[in-house]
Amino acid sequence: LVEERAKMQPNYHHVYLELVTLLQDKALWDEVLRETYISVSRMLNSEATMQNSTERTHLKNLGGWLGLLTLARDRPIRHRNIAFKQLLIEAHDTKRLIIIIPFVCKVLTQ
């Protein structure tokens, strides 16, 4: 769901969220959230994301998905999962703001 759908089809995020919610399975919910964090982490650290605009769009889509799973439902994103302040500072130092700013904005706008 995360790798094949949420990353590539942001128009259907609400449908996927509704599906996971209707199943009412906490283990499934936790697994979807865990897989989202893993995918985001992988893309944030990937050199391909810097070079490829499609990869940046996928990361931004995952940011929207993560925001829907967490902040839109009044659930926190824990510092141990994603440290946004540190992420932005590190991105500034390593010239990766082109990746990080759209991702963070998308998470927060959900």
Describe this protein's structure.
- Residues 1-110 form the CCR4-NOT transcription complex subunit 1 CAF1-binding domain.
- It holds the Pfam family CNOT1_CAF1_bind.
- One of its GO terms (molecular function) is molecular adaptor activity.
- This is CCR4-NOT transcription complex subunit 1 CAF1-binding domain-containing protein.
- InterPro entries: CNOT1_CAF1_bind, Not1.
- The longest helix is centred in the first third of the chain and has 19 residues, at 26-44.
- The chain has seven helices and no strands.
- The model has no long low-confidence stretch (mean pLDDT 94).
- It has one domain: Alpha Horseshoe (Serine Threonine Protein Phosphatase 5, Tetratricopeptide repeat), CATH 1.25.40.
- It is globular and about 40 Å long.
- It has 110 residues and is mostly helical.
Structure summarized in a few sentences:
With 110 residues, the protein is mainly alpha-helical.
Model regions low in confidence, pLDDT < 50 over at least 5 residues:
none
Tell me what the CATH architecture is: Alpha Horseshoe
Query: Count of helices?
Result: 7
Estimate nothing, just give the exact number of structural domains: 1
CATH class: Mainly Alpha
State the end-to-end CA separation: 19 Å
Biggest pleated-sheet summary: none
Quaternary structure annotation: single chain
State the order of secondary-structure elements, H for helix, E for strand: HHHHHHH
Amount of beta strand: under 5%
Overall shape: it is globular
Mean pLDDT reading: 94
Instruction: Report Rg.
Output: 13 Å
CATH topology, which one? Serine Threonine Protein Phosphatase 5, Tetratricopeptide repeat
Classify the helix fraction into a percent range.
over 70%
Give the class from helix and strand content and strand pairing. mainly alpha
Could you tell me the number of beta strands?
0
